[in-house]
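Human: You know discrete backbone vocabularies at least as well as I do. Show me how you would write down a chain together with its backbone fold. No explanation is needed for now; the record alone will do.

Assistant:
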Amino acid sequence: SGCSEDGSCEDWKFTFPSIIEALKGSCVDIPCTFTHPKDAKDFNFFWYSKKNQAKIFNNKTPSDVVDEYKGRTFLTGNTGNDCSMKIINVEKTENYYPGINIDINSYKLKSRAVYVYVPDRPPKPLISGTENMEDKKTVIISCAVNHTCPSHPPTLTWNITGHPIMENHENLHFIGGWRMESRMTYTASYTDDRTVLECAATFQNNKTSVKIIALNIKCK
């Protein structure tokens, strides 16, 4: 059904990121919340592909979606106003939008869709904390990479061992995605100056990306 003449369409609001970068062969969690008129009850919920308005997620009848998305889309929200969706085995770049029918949805009401960009190569991790290294000074060196599949986060590995390491997995919420970080406690020695430090991120599809830097350790 369409919107009533009293403007109740304005009471439907959908909030989600405008762009998410996902890795081919991995999964993507698209964060989403919505508000609806108080008298709206027993409505179905959908996600659509912008390309042809095809249903890719159908809350009440999961099998009634376009063939290529059958068994690949799920709601991940645990509250009544959470429309977050997971797509597994992401294949291609696509625009998606949520709604309850072809008239009441984020694209029809506000021309909004989320652009899920799927590059062939995984993102490179970033190394930080090596900017001011001195002989005998202890620093925390961080390697971090963003991803979109919290159920299968990337693994981060260093090329040097023997140093304490802590990991942190952070939800970036409406930026869209998660951040995996490995922190290494490193006591510098001037004999390690120009040593090559390497951090590798291995993702769900077994693709790996590597960041390499040379340490610059000053004598005191």
